[in-house]
Specification:
Layout lengths: L8 H4 L10 E6 L4 E6 L21 E5 L2 E6 L11 H7 L26 H5 L2 H6 L23 E3 L2 E3 L8 H6 L12 E2 L2 E3 L3 H7 L1 H4 L4 H4 L17 H4 L6 E2 L8 H5 L4 E2 L47 H4 L1 H4 L12 H8 L3 E2 L2 H4 L9 E2 L11 E7 L3 E9 L4 E10 L2 E7 L12 E8 L4 E8 L2
Parallel strand pairs: 8-10
Antiparallel strand pairs: 1-2, 2-3, 3-4, 5-6, 7-8, 9-11, 12-13, 13-16, 14-15, 14-17, 17-18
Length: about 450
């Protein structure tokens, strides 16, 4: 069910005195936020407005997923008008000439107030004049905005211009889903700016290898509010990738970690400081504690020292520090980095294949601390007779998890915090020990209730 809190908009807008007769249009109001254009063409609550609360703020209402995030002061000291620079992407048939609002000159005009069929497929007159020739609706419409000084999209210094006979979905989507028509992934205040999906895609192998926006999206259906606009999951293409993740069952999906909420349209959420309200399309994760942003914070780093990639701060801490009262283990960034190593564990049972590791290893359990269960992973370089046991800190054996001869490969086993008899063990430090003919290792873990 769509919830945008429309019934409470006017009560909080500006100084609270406005009626719908003051409003010429609402920008947004569906997924993340709402702004309000006055009958003078200015955003109410900004400095250029002709209403009495000009410059007073309280001009943007934020919400996400049915949760209200309240009013904010969106650039109250700036002059904000709804003209071509804004509606070129939010309407259909935008033009710099004319005006969309009677009595206010110079705003520009548009043919439809929303993003309609012709915004992506081009003028419908061609389709109609040819007696319904489908070539004009089965293709996308490559074009450059009238204020696009470079005439196309710039990827690392190379400008791609629109082809009137082309059918490049990524170019068409990228016309709006970017900032400045250039490929750096713009950011501000520790979050990627919204409308950066094209910039993110072209920075990743997905874009470089020819995947398009419609590879995963049905552009005619929504994703928000329970929509079914996603046509493929990660597993559709990556069935050969590790199937077991060092999380408890159903704790996370691929997109939770690889497409976290690193971008912000209206608001940040939770208590971690690392969760915005728009999923990023940067799927690569660099497992260290360095910032993913440039020193001045204006863009995502993407150079020879660090490719465009997520930081565990966003991939991990967005959940693990979201709420101290939830059942998810809280972590520091350093703990998240350590836990993210060897995150994917491949098993012959789970994946049908089992890569042979080059050496024996006992990996850090995850999560740690944990409650009620944790995953312990290990690598066998040769076929081995293996035992994996849990001990108390005093050295008393409490559980045998593995006692078998196993072929070389990568393995993972879950411990549920119980002893051999099925009794729930108390909080405390425990040790897990692996033994084979040629390898022995011990590590510690903390059961915390």
């Amino acid at each position: 069910m769509v919830v945008n809190f429309q019934d409470s908009w006017l009560a909080g807008l500006g100084d609270g005195s406005h009626t719908w007769s003051d409003i010429a249009g609402v920008i947004g109001g569906f997924g993340w936020k709402a702004r309000f254009v006055g009958t003078d063409g200015h955003l109410i609550g900004t400095a250029g407005s002709s209403f009495g609360d000009a410059g007073a703020g309280h001009n943007q209402f934020n919400f996400f997923g049915g949760e209200e995030h309240g009013w904010v002061d969106y650039h109250p000291a700036d002059t904000k008008i709804y003209n071509y620079s804004c509606f070129k992407c939010h309407t259909t048939g935008g033009d710099t000439t004319g005006t969309w609002l009677a009595g206010v000159d110079g705003l520009g005009s548009f043919t439809e107030g929303g993003v309609g069929c012709e915004a992506c497929h081009g003028p419908g007159s061609q389709h109609a004049q040819t007696g319904g020739n489908k070539q004009y609706i089965d293709r996308v419409y490559e074009f450059a905005h009238l204020d696009n000084a470079i005439g196309g999209l710039d990827i690392n210094g190379t400008v791609q211009t629109p082809d009137p006979n082309g059918n490049d979905v990524n170019f068409m989507c990228g016309t709006c889903h970017n900032r400045s028509y250039t490929s750096p992934i713009n950011s501000k205040g520790g979050f990627i700016k919204h409308h950066e999906q094209w910039d993110e895609l072209v920075s990743q192998d997905h874009g470089k290898k020819g995947l398009t926006c419609v590879t995963c999206h049905d552009p005619h259906k929504r994703v928000l509010w329970g929509g079914d606009g996603i046509t493929k999951t990660c597993e559709t293409c990556h069935a050969d990738k590790p199937a077991v993740i060092n999380h408890t069952a159903n704790a996370a999906t691929c997109v939770d970690c690889h497409m976290p909420y690193t971008a912000k349209s209206g608001t940040t959420r939770g208590e971690s400081g690392f969760m915005g309200d728009v999923r990023s399309h940067i799927v690569m994760i660099t497992v260290n504690n360095e910032s993913m942003f440039t020193e001045d914070g204006s863009a995502v780093r993407d150079d020879e020292t660090r490719p465009a990639s997520q930081s565990p701060a966003y991939s991990c801490l967005g959940c693990h520090n979201d709420d101290p009262a939830d059942a998810i283990t809280d972590m520091t960034l350093e703990q998240a980095v350590a836990a993210a190593e060897d995150m994917h564990v491949e098993t012959s049972v789970a994946s049908g294949t089992n890569e042979i590791p080059s050496e024996f290893a006992l990996l850090n359990n995850y999560p740690n601390p944990f409650n009620p269960e944790t995953t312990i992973a290990y690598h066998l370089a040769d076929q081995s007779s293996v035992t994996l046991r849990i001990f108390s800190l005093l050295g008393t054996e409490v559980r045998t998890l593995v006692e078998a001869t196993q072929p070389a490969g990568k393995y993972a086993v879950v411990w549920d915090g119980r002893d051999q008899a099925g009794n729930i063990l108390p909080s405390g430090m425990y040790m897990y020990r692996i033994e084979s003919a040629s390898f022995t290792a011990v590590k510690k873990m903390l059961l915390m209730k």
